[in-house]
């Protein structure tokens, strides 16, 4: 069977006061928006030339003529109801329903993420059922799978340090073959920015 790969990017519409709210508490909403736009551009730059199908899932509405060029990205809206896990589960469901066999999701908060690490994730899915990129804050910056494992999205304390360990516990309980990518840092707080992207802080 031919492998059919899809990279899904979960992003927030870049609107003042609605992005990087924890960071905005330290630097103000205008600076937080500027930083988020830098993160979006970084995510675009490392993904747009990857030779696989890509879809951008917007939080609020699909944007036309924005920084995600139509020739490189499909565009969809995240499922409007439920928590982050429900929205991601629906996106994976749709991907597998369309016949994809290796599906990876990333966010837009990780300045250390590279094209090479994304390629590593898809390579890992050739011999594993799940691949996960752990974040230093206890979450994850990447999740990939070869079919839908609903348990990985259910009963999670999203946006806490429990997400990654709880997800690994599910993976092990289900006896899934899995691969771990390098630990990277997301940008959520001013401290994250100062450590990983000092030129923006």
UniProtKB/TrEMBL annotation:
It comes from the Bacteria. Signal peptide: none annotated. InterPro entries: Nucleotide-diphossugar_trans, Trfase_1_rSAM/seldom-assoc. Pfam families: DUF2064. This is Glycosyltransferase. It comes from Pontibacter ramchanderi. The lineage of its organism: Bacteria, Pseudomonadati, Bacteroidota, Cytophagia, Cytophagales.
């Amino acid at each position: 069977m031919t492998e059919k790969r899809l990279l899904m990017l979960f992003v927030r519409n870049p609107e003042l006061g609605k992005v990087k709210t924890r960071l905005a508490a330290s630097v103000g909403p205008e600076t937080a928006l500027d930083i988020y736009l830098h993160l979006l551009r970084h995510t675009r730059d490392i993904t747009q030339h990857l030779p696989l199908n890509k879809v951008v899932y917007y939080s609020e509405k699909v944007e036309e003529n924005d920084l995600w060029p139509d020739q490189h990205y499909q565009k969809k809206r995240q499922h409007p109801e439920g928590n982050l896990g429900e929205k991601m589960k629906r996106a994976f469901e749709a991907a597998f329903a369309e016949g994809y066999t290796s599906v990876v999701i990333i966010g837009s908060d990780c300045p250390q993420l590279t094209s090479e690490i994304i390629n590593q994730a898809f390579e890992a899915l050739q011999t594993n059922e799940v691949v996960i990129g752990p974040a230093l804050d206890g979450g994850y910056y990447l999740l990939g799978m070869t079919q839908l494992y609903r348990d990985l999205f259910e009963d999670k304390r999203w946006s806490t340090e429990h997400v990654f360990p709880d997800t690994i516990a599910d993976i092990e309980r289900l006896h899934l073959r899995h691969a771990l990518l390098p630990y990277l840092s997301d940008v959520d707080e001013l401290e994250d920015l100062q450590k990983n992207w000092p030129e923006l802080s």
